[in-house]
Amino acid sequence: MKAIKHTGIVIFLIGLAIFTGTIFTGSFSLTSDELDTFINQKKYKSEIIKDELKKATVTSEDLNIFEFSSRVRAAYKASNDHYDAQIAKYNLEKNWDKKGEQYQYKIYGKPHTVSFELAKIAGKGYIKDNAGLVWWLTFGLGIIGALLFILPNYKLLGNAGIKNNGIYLESSTNRGFFAWLVLIYLVSFYLVLYFMPDYVVNWTFIFDPISKSLNGGPASQWFVYGFLYCTLMLVMATRMYIKYRHNKYQILRTTSVLFFQIVFAFLIPEIMTSLNMPGYDFKNAFPLDYDFFFEWNLDSLKESGAIGLFILVWGIILTLVIVPVMVYFFGKRWYCSWVCGCGGLAETLGDPYRQHSNKSMKAWKLERWIIHFVLLFSLAMTAVTLYCYFTGTQSFLGINSQWIKDTYSFLIGAWFAGVIGTGFYPIFGNRVWCRFGCPLAAYLGLVQRFKSRFRITTNGGQCISCGNCSTYCEQGIDVRAYAQKGENIVRSSCVGCGICSAVCPRGVLKLENGPEEGRINPTDVLLGNDVDLMKLVNDK
Amino acid sequence: MEHIVIIGNGISGVTAARHIRKNSDKQITIVSAETDYFFSRTALMYVYMGHMKFEHTQPYESWFWKKNKIELKKGFVKTVDSKNKTLHFANGDTLQYDKLIIATGSKPNKFGWPGQELNGVMGMYHKQDLDNLEKYAPDNKACKRAVIVGGGLIGIELVEMLHSRNIPVTFLVREQSFWNGVLPKGESEMINREIKKNHIDLRLGVNLKEIKSDKNGNVKSIVIAETGEEIECNVVGLTAGVSPNVDFLKNSDLEIGSGVKVNRFLETNLKDIYAIGDCAEQHEAIGSRRSIEAVWYTGRMMGETLAQTICGNRIEYKPGHWFNSAKFIDIEYQTYGWVWAHTKENEARFYWEHKDGNKCIHLNYDKNTREFIGINNFGIRMRHDFFDRVLNEKRSVDYVLEHLADANFDPEFYTLHEAEIAAKFNKENNTNIQLKKKSWARIFSRA
Predict the structure, then answer these.
(1) Given this model, what pLDDT does residue A533 score?
(2) pLDDT per residue over B299-324, tens digit each?
(3) CB distance B409–A161 less than 8 Å?
(4) How far is CA A69 from CA A28, A163, A209, in A?
């Protein structure tokens, strides 16, 4: 069994190495025709970019993606620098007409994105020609290796039950060397994905055939990410199924997040795209879906006829009605640990790291400041955006609409949710984003705290203060602090994953939905001591 | 300002300190020789098993003590001078008190077995035992086999701990079936099966004769008294129960039996000295309880009660209905009220076991009045509140069965066995109990 496990990890690492290695392969060059078509499509008016790009990319040289990218970005910069100089010149001459003319020649958009689009056309090589085989050598080996590593747990972990044996004795789950390696890999992955997509254009070639069959078009980096996301969740869900095979709540919850990720977040949007509809994730509620009210999305929905209108209405009802009503009846868990994609990844890929959340009082204070700030930030951004959208102005209350959207997308959308949120799993736990950053979680949390039937009931005086519940709370709630006093746990951040209840050795905790009255029970319960409480109170 | 000194930073002493602080601004000092901060003794096993780090067993962050003005002093109390209200420490320090609370807990029993002081022989009670185990049994290369002596709760915990590191374990149990002085036959046999299912070499009805040494003073093997069989091993766990940790008081004026003798108010024979927790011994046992109760929960209750007395609201220690819990490897156990190992004259029993052999409930009730006396539940969680109320209201066994859905505390979506349980009861007793649907109104109604 151990041998199978070891073989599995080796196969997995080979797959991962090939996957990572593909980045460095292939050659990138364009023909004049390809470049012209691209420039016409893009409607670039700049003459300089044409020449510069031609010099840079129409070549018989064997360029790898990094050389190609840097040449494209240099061309882009040369063109923009030229017109910026012109603008500065006419500005000095106070030649306003000429100055105004120059702006149409400027190229907008991120350099790495332009480079990605070109590279998508320019790429040649083994991967593009053998996408199927390379899929098997990367994803195939990765999946097989990971399953070989995970499946023997069925025997190795022993009989069904809580088997957290050795978690704090192993480097990978105890913030050791391997954990840091994983962190570095994940962080690099997200940085490249968000900010340098052209570097991983080879990955998209692996997925072109699959993407074409699903939505009719070639694969973008987001298609790769979506597919990878679903694959990781699926593979790591088998780990959950084995680890918690005695616990039906965990089995059902894992199945639910898998279903919503694969069907709602991945398949439905892809199929919608193939039908010329806007691809929409029907479960992704604003403000987690922070660009729902961005101009481009509203315009795209407006242009999409009935389905666009339906999505618009659905999106608003989801946030304003469905989400809070469901939280009232079931707590925020219905979303955060049964439906949400971020939660889904955290509960599968992130489960081995759940113990790393910080349980200190300081962290709790920090959490409340940051998460509510992000909620306000997202609402302010949306208010500015909508105001500008309907009035046609550039800014509202002195806040530039584009600036606040870009800032939010960069800081919260990319850095917080991606790079930190997932990249830091191995060291800071699997719910950093959900706990500190997610504006939707903040909103759900307010409802859960003040108007909900959900609570974690503490079973009278049975707590022995062992600390398993607190240790394994991914949201950093000091569950024990409540349980040992006989108090129910009603906390805005609780995502209802149910692990505290699962790991409790004494049957003390139960997630329940019940009447609001008595939800927060009196704190002066004397734990099993037969003291006449009323008499005690009167004597004081 | 009155100075309250508490010897012992376990659950009893710390609970007392917390509640005294809640109700007063008295000066409080907690003395401990074991660790700097309070930790959950019951959680030590999880540190060795790698579920937690030692710091996770500490329920309060270190700022808690300062913020609540509870002073912590590390030191070993050698003698108590009750005339001058002074503690004398092993290192020569002294400490004055106005009121003294003795909460020193237990120490593991050793019955004078030959070889019981060898390297690699240990209990599983103190933080130091954990360190010792880590030293002598870090893995199955350093420790080829461990032998655990004593079939109680700590014994099976130690078995589970070693098993988690794949160390082969032999488990010597004096009784004919595991913990059968406390558990009835069905439950006890279920745990025997659970132990064997985990490939533990369980030896029932045997005693330890001696522990043999190698030439370096390390454990080499043990010998079983009954059969003379010698079993090679590197670690021996002695877990034959605990007794009050009161040796340091033997020369004081305190009345000592097995533990520190206390009355119902947890007062000793000396004014301003109290004893709580494992080390306290009631002059007369309360109800069906033992006069010394070495249980987490009772320690906590005594701490709460005594805090009231210390703060001027003198009240009697009246533990409510008995409850307890444990976990036997993968099988959780809870009990509410009394289910004795052997049925008493006025009692009738009902036992249901799930076909997988890992779950059961055992009901005890008065055969004449049908009043519910207690329940053992294994592999099924039950609501403390429900049974506390049933016992308060002196409900019948029939009531309990009808309301099993209210009583159940298993996580959501778990398969419920209530119908099967009621059907079995009806069949055996010729009754016609109909299950009631779960009712939140009943569950949350405050009696």
Answers:
(1) 47
(2) 999 999 999 999 999 999 999 899 99
(3) no
(4) 9, 48, 24
Q: Are B101 and B7 in contact (CB under 8 A)?
A: yes
Would you call B412 and A512 a contact, using CB atoms and an 8 Å cutoff?
yes
DSSP state of B414: P
Supply the DSSP string of A338-378, one letter for each residue: TT-HHHHHHHHTTGGGGGGS--SHHHHHHHHHHHHHHHHHH
What angle do the packed helices A2-21 and A141-150 form, to 10 degrees? 150
Q: Are strands A454-458 and A399-400 parallel, antiparallel or unpaired?
A: unpaired
Q: List, as one string, the DSSP characters of A103-117.
A: GGG---S-HHHHHHH
Which ranges in chain B are annotated with CATH 3.30.390.30?
323-444
Out of A159, A164, A460, the one facing B51 most closely (by C-beta) is A164
How high is the pLDDT of residue B446? 61
* String of DSSP letters for B353-410: E-TTSS-EEEEEEETTT-BEEEEEEESS-B-HHHHHHHHHTT-BHHHHHHTHHHHB-P
Q: Do B388 and A460 touch (CB under 8 A)?
A: yes
Selected from 3.90.550.10, 3.40.50.300, 3.30.390.30, 2.40.10.270, the CATH number assigned to the domain covering B323-444 reads 3.30.390.30
Q: What contacts B245, CB < 8 A, 6 or more positions away? A: B104, B105, B106, B107, B278, B279
Instruction: Answer whether A101 touches B (CB < 8 Å).
Output: no
Q: Is the pLDDT of residue A523 over 70?
A: no
Instruction: Say yes or no to pLDDT of B117 above 70.
Output: yes
The span from the first CA to the last CA of chain B, in angstroms, equals 40
Band of the pLDDT at A522, cuts 50, 70, 90?
A: low
Do residue B334 and residue A515 have CB atoms under 8 angstroms apart? no
Residue A49, pLDDT > 90, answer no
Which residue carries 């010394």 as its tokens? B292
Intervals of CATH 3.50.50.60 along chain B: 3-107+243-310, 121-240
Rounded to whole angstroms, how far apart are CA atoms A318 and A321? Answer: 6
> Which one-letter DSSP state was computed for residue B119?
B
CA dist A337 and A345 (Å) reads 10
Name which of A355, A459, A477 to mutate to probe chain B: the one with the most chain B Cβ atoms within 10 A of its Cβ: A459
Nearest Cα residue to A354 out of A291, A427, A296: A427
Which chain A residues touch B382 with a CB distance below 8 Å?
507
For residue B82, what are the contacts with CB-CB under 8 A and spacing of at least 6?
Answer: B100, B252, B253, B254, B270, B273
Q: Which fold has domain B121-240?
A: FAD/NAD(P)-binding domain (3.50.50)
Nearest CA in chain A to B62: A360
**pLDDT tens track for A137-170:** 999 999 999 999 999 999 999 999 999 999 999 9
Name which of A442, A444, A446, A417 is nearest A432 in CA terms. A417
CB contact under 8 A, B330 and A459: no
- How do residues A270-312 score in pLDDT, each as one tens digit? 999 999 888 899 999 999 999 999 999 999 999 988 999 999 9
Class of domain B3-107+243-310: alpha beta
How far is residue B378 from each of residues A510, B325, B354, B390, measured CA to CA in Å? 17, 10, 10, 19
Is B51–A480 a contact, with Cβ atoms under 8 angstroms apart? no
Please state, in angstroms and rounded to a whole number, the distance separating the CA atoms of residues B132 and B125: 11
Structure tokens at A64: 């790898």
What tens digit of pLDDT does each residue of A398-452 get?
889 899 999 999 999 999 998 999 999 999 999 999 999 999 999 999 999 999 9
Q: Are strands B235-238 and B121-122 parallel, antiparallel or unpaired?
A: parallel
ipTM of the predicted structure? Answer: 0.95
Residue type, B88: H
Whether residue A468 lies within 8 A of chain B, CB to CB, comes out as yes
If pLDDT is split at 50, 70 and 90, which confidence band does B19 have? Answer: very high
A161 φ/ψ sector (left φ>0, alpha ψ -120 to 50, else beta): left
